[in-house]
Design a protein that fits this description.
By secondary structure, this protein is an alpha+beta fold. It has two domains: about 1-25 and about 295-335; about 35-285, Jelly Rolls, CATH 2.60.120.200. It contains seven helices and 17 strands. The longest helix has about 30 residues, at about 295-325. The chain starts with a helix and ends with a helix. The model is unreliable at about 1-10, about 15-30 and about 270-295 (pLDDT under 50).
Length: about 350
């Protein structure tokens, strides 16, 4: 019976030590994701995705139409659950990486285009003016308020210093892009009306954004069209954000359609290597990278493992000692080694005198 109780206490103690030493192994498993390869006959779609502005689902459910075929149309499709880009647990920053994919089309009219947006909690969901990628005036005017967007821009607007009418840009708190790349480099016409694909990946460990694009019948490109270092954890200060796809057509009749959308979030401790956001999208012809020496991350993991084992062994010894002393009430020294006083009866002791001469004989 005592051994059963001891095993329970030991397992409990070791579990606590393991959680303290390796909290990231459990926190890294927490994730938030969704995936809609198509919107037809999907009962969970409207429960997870909200429509704002002029956004509507096609009658057949084959696509979501964010802007309609009239002037100054605007709208958004947003994931209803908030996303946390990072947290602080036990003095360690747990930052979030993510990857998102969507397929879309933009008609040839001269509209604003489409944007993947990350908006702070409490953003305005009304006040559409048919411009600014469907973002409200309230959000745009408050330049000190953090928001993030990847714009797929099909209109050259000198007000925001646009490169041309066929580019991809990264926006932080403003519609003036911090970095821009011309999609013509990939022979892509963003407003051709044809279906295109976009991959947006954020790696928290390296604080790096990568954007890839291709035509519908092509595989994911190896090299990104645009990349930029951004620390989302520092940018949003631990606040919840909402992600979505937003569009407007300004004074044109451009129609924006979204055919599929997926998103995957993974929270990874700062000392762990990040995993591929979408392992299936890694090209098969890419040669694996050979690591020739141990990295600093590996040393940290091994150090933490050794500390955890040492704490577990010390805890087990302590529990055994306390159990033996206070629970079973056994003395520290065994009874057979306890010194007991001996009483001698001197009356029964006989002294024999031996003559030295007799000993000689």
């Amino acid at each position: 019976m005592a051994s059963i109780y001891f095993s329970r206490y030991y397992l409990l103690f070791f579990s606590v030590v393991f959680l303290i030493c390796f909290p990231g192994l459990f926190l890294a498993q927490s994730s938030s994701s969704f995936g809609f390869k198509s919107f037809a006959k999907n009962s969970n779609f409207l429960n997870e995705i909200g429509f704002f502005g002029d956004t509507k689902l096609d009658e057949n459910g084959s696509f979501v139409q964010i802007t309609q075929s009239w002037g100054f149309s605007a709208g958004r499709m947003m994931y209803r659950k908030p996303i946390t880009m990072g947290m602080n647990k036990l003095g360690r920053n747990i930052k979030a990486s993510f990857g998102t994919y969507f397929s879309f089309s933009l008609s040839p009219e001269n509209g604003d285009g489409l944007a993947f947006v990350m908006l702070p909690n409490g953003y305005s969901s009304d006040g559409y003016n048919g411009k600014l990628f469907g973002l409200s005036n309230e959000l745009i005017q408050k330049k000190n308020r953090a928001f993030f967007a990847v714009e797929i821009d099909t209109k050259m607007d000198n007000q925001f210093g646009d490169l041309d009418g066929n580019h991809v840009g990264i926006n932080i708190g403003s519609l003036v892009s911090v970095k821009v790349s011309n999609s013509s480099e990939l022979n892509l016409d963003l407003s051709s009306g044809k279906k295109l694909q976009c991959w947006i990946d954020y790696e928290a460990s390296s604080k790096r954004f990568e954007i890839r694009m291709s035509k519908a019948d092509e595989t994911r490109p190896v090299s990104p069209l645009l990349s930029c270092p951004i620390d989302l954890f520092e940018m949003f200060k631990g606040q919840d954000v909402f992600i979505g796809l937003s569009s407007s057509n300004a004074n044109s009749t451009q129609v924006c359609k979204v055919f599929s959308w997926s998103f995957k979030l993974r929270q990874v401790p700062y000392w762990m290597h990040s995993q591929p956001l979408d392992p299936q999208t890694v090209p098969k012809d890419v040669k694996p990278v050979t690591i020739r020496q141990k990295t600093d991350c590996t040393v940290r993991v091994l150090t933490a493992l050794i500390i955890g084992i040492a704490c577990g062994a010390l805890g087990a010894y302590t529990v055994m000692f306390v159990w033996s002393v206070f629970v079973t009430k056994q003395p520290v020294a065994p009874e057979e080694y306890v010194v007991k006083p001996a009483i001698y009866d001197y009356d029964k002791v006989k002294v024999l005198a031996v003559d030295a001469c007799d000993d000689v004989k």
